């Protein structure tokens, strides 16, 4: 059964793979533009990924959505994703502004988990964008998720993800609290580094 789903999903993957190439190129352009405008390179690293068939199926299950290609295309917007890890908190908002004014990427949804962190303590800026793909049959718009975060936020998110992996169900309260407390330290550190950056820029 899973194999049948896999064959159907693989049929639409070509669109997503093409969109990912365009997204990667566009992020490079944003980096170059930033370098030119602000005279520093804000992006530490970029990671892109394609969601596995297994993960797509789990997400459909989580939202109680029946399997169909239309349902996947119309409900799962992070089949392709890019994570932009930058140096300072203020860089995140500059990058968001550049993406918003980009004529290539159309922002359709945004979530500021920096101003409003998730209950877990997770902090990042998320954008859902439409990526135009020029196929021989015409232009299609493919949705992609862009996560923008600082190195410190990325450090917290990857360790939290690793630590949480052991628990298939609910996290024990004491561990939850430790993670939330550590995310507050991360936020404090990001604010202090941003402040130092402002001090340095005055010299
Ligand atoms: P993966 O493998 O990273 O892609 P949903 O996508 O349904 O879970 P929603 O509201 O549609 O929820 O999306 P949301 O919350 O904007 O972002 C989902 C993605 O953000 C997750 O993707 C994670 O990458 C990241 N994320 C969200 N909350 C947390 C958290 O508490 N800890 C960590 N480490 N990452 C988080 P996926 O699909 O879960 O997985």
Can you summarize this structure?
The protein is of the alpha+beta class and 203 residues long. It has a single domain (2-156), classed as Beta Polymerase, domain 2 (2-Layer Sandwich), CATH 3.30.460. It is built from six helices and five strands; from the N terminus they run αβααβαβββαα.
The N- to C-terminal Cα distance equals: 64 Å
Which fold name is given in CATH as the topology?
Beta Polymerase, domain 2
Please tell me how large the radius of gyration is.
19 Å
CATH 4th-level superfamily: Beta Polymerase, domain 2
- The strand count comes to 5
CATH architecture group name: 2-Layer Sandwich
Please indicate the count of domains.
1
Shape designation: flat
Biggest sheet: strand arrangement: 1-2-5-4-3
Helix share of residues? 40-55%
Uncertain stretches: none
Mean pLDDT: 92
Biggest β-sheet description: 5 strands, mixed
What is the N-to-C order of secondary-structure elements (H for helix, E for strand)? HEHHEHEEEHH
Counting helices, strands and paired strands, the structural category is alpha+beta
Strand content: 15-25%
